[in-house]
């Protein structure tokens, strides 16, 4: 029996960054990953009607607290009365996002964490996935969202988010730069559809990623 792909969107986005043929998370796919995970949680909240989005602002809506602890924490960060700009909710706590999602995957037997040294000097956690074939299948599913030419309006929000976010963070585990150029029209159509469904979030993720990239950050151990 094959492994069951983790349910939450943040968990799937975490695994999407893994380079299977190298057996590791490469540095160029780590920048902005904390923001990516928070954007995934925010997408789930939008899907479940637990936030309201108007242009560049977001507000928490009343409802049942999400079962997932990470998504619940992100929900709790949102303003409950007056809408505020998206960017702070994607960016400000990005450095705290990776550990809880990683630990969920580890507890579920989907990832293994070992202590090593980054670049041979700095102590750092090394994460390997338990079922690389499932990660490959996930990455192919995301690629097919673009390559198969599906009508954007027919794509579920979770699938749409994975495709769009992988482009915004320029994940080399999913796309080569030449592919991003070749399929620009299809990618733009998917981005426009996502913006209709969760207005303002994609731009906030991109802005946060570019900000982190300039200083070489955006992830944590």
Notes on the structure:
The structure is a single chain. The relative contact order is 0.20. This protein is mainly alpha-helical. The two termini are about 30 Å apart. The protein has helices at about 10-15, 35-45, 70-75, 85-90, 100-105, 130-145, 155-170, 175-180, 185-195, 200-215; strands at about 50-55, 55-60, 85, 110-120, 120-130. Helix content is about 50%, strand content about 10%. The strands form two sheets. It has a three-stranded antiparallel β-sheet with strand order 1-2-3. The chain has a two-stranded antiparallel ribbon with strand order 4-5.
Strand and helix map with partners:
Blueprint: H1 9-16, H2 33-47, E1 51-54, E2 57-60, H3 69-77, E3 84-85, H4 87-91, H5 98-107, E4 111-118, E5 122-129, H6 132-147, H7 157-168, H8 177-182, H9 184-197, H10 201-214
Antiparallel strand pairs: 1-2, 2-3, 4-5
Helix pairs in contact: 1-2, 2-3, 2-7, 2-10, 6-7, 7-9
Key descriptive features of the protein:
mainly alpha, 221 residues, three-stranded antiparallel sheet, two-stranded antiparallel sheet, 12% strand
Helix content range = 40-55%
How large, in whole angstroms, is the Cα Rg?
Answer: 17 Å
Strand content: 5-15%
Poorly predicted runs are: none
Structural classification: mainly alpha
- Largest sheet, strands/sense/barrel: 3 strands, antiparallel
| Number of DSSP-assigned strands | 5
C-alpha termini separation: 32 Å
> Biggest sheet: strands side by side, in what order?
1-2-3
Shape: globular
- Taken in chain order, the helices and strands follow as HHEEHEHHEEHHHHH
Rounded mean pLDDT score: 90
Number of helices: 10
């Amino acid at each position: 029996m094959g492994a069951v792909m983790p349910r939450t969107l943040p968990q799937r986005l975490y695994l999407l960054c893994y380079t299977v043929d190298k057996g590791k998370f490469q540095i160029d796919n780590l920048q902005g990953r904390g923001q990516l995970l928070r954007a995934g949680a925010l997408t789930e909240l939008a899907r479940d009607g637990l936030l309201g989005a108007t242009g560049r602002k977001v507000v928490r809506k009343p409802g049942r607290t999400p079962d997932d602890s990470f998504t619940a924490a992100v929900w709790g960060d949102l303003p409950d009365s007056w809408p505020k700009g998206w960017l702070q909710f994607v960016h400000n706590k990005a450095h705290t996002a990776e550990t809880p999602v990683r630990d969920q995957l580890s507890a579920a037997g989907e990832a293994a964490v070992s202590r090593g040294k980054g670049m041979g000097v700095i102590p750092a956690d090394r994460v390997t996935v338990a079922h690389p074939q499932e990660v490959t299948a996930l990455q192919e599913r995301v690629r097919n969202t673009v390559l198969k030419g599906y009508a954007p309006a027919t794509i579920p929000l979770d699938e749409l988010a994975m495709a769009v976010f992988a482009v915004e963070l320029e994940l080399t585990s999913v796309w080569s730069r030449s592919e991003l150029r070749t399929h620009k029209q299809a990618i733009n159509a998917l981005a426009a559809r996502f913006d209709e469904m969760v207005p303002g979030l994609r731009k906030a993720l991109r802005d946060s990623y570019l900000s982190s990239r300039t200083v070489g950050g955006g992830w944590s151990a």
